[in-house]
Design goal:
Length: 206
């Protein structure tokens, strides 16, 4: 009897916890939402990237706009840190991706199992290099860049260097615009309520 009560109590507690967790995850429409400064700066950074891409006649600015959005953080200091990590990660992922593509082209670009092997082992190498140089924060970005380069590469192409270089240039453009835009103070001096945000903090993150 006592055991049954304990089991019932535990079950009730678990159900209550589950219901509470579901209530937190409920989909709710927010008709009162207004884009904050971070959203505006992100859109502005993307706009600058696209304008630069059009002016420089770049083939695609996908990597640039992604980098720009990622680099727009709540504070300028965080933007700088994310920008540095993004650049280091892109450099590591780009270099390892380049040598992986050269290996693929040198051996036989038609061997699918080799392509799969290079992707899998390459991720381990990227993670090892990031940890070896003490830049763990750049590990995720480095892996993403590596996989993007290797999986999206046109195997009929014979110029892996130019392909990787263009992706690195696009990413660098995005980082520069993302960090610089976050440095700009779009608000009047004194910010909201007459108080200037500390360390360049964006008052609204959404």
């Amino acid at each position: 009897m006592w055991l049954r009560r304990c089991s019932t109590g535990a079950l009730t507690a678990n159900i209550g916890a589950d219901n509470k967790e579901r209530s937190k995850m409920e989909f709710k429409l927010n008709f009162h939402y207004k884009p904050g400064m971070r959203a505006i700066k992100s859109a502005f950074a993307v706009l600058l990237c696209l304008i630069a891409g059009y002016a420089l006649k770049r083939e695609s600015m996908f990597y640039a706009v992604i980098a720009a959005v990622i680099c727009v953080q709540p504070t300028f200091d965080k933007s700088k840190n994310v920008g540095i990590n993004r650049f280091i990660g892109s450099l590591i992922g780009g270099l390892i991706g380049y040598f992986s593509l050269e290996l693929l082209l040198a051996v036989n670009k038609e061997i699918n199992w080799l392509f799969i092997f290079i992707n899998s082992v390459g991720v381990i190498i990227v993670i090892y290099v990031c940890n070896f140089f003490g830049v763990k924060e750049a590990t995720t970005i480095a892996c993403i860049v590596f996989l993007n380069l290797v999986t999206n590469f046109d195997r009929d192409s014979h110029d892996a260097f130019l392909y990787v270089l263009n992706r690195m240039i696009d990413t660098t453009i995005g980082i520069i615009f993302g960090v610089l835009v976050n440095r700009i103070d779009f608000k009047k001096k004194g910010g909201e309520n007459g108080k200037k945000p500390e360390n360049g903090e964006i008052s609204r993150m959404d």
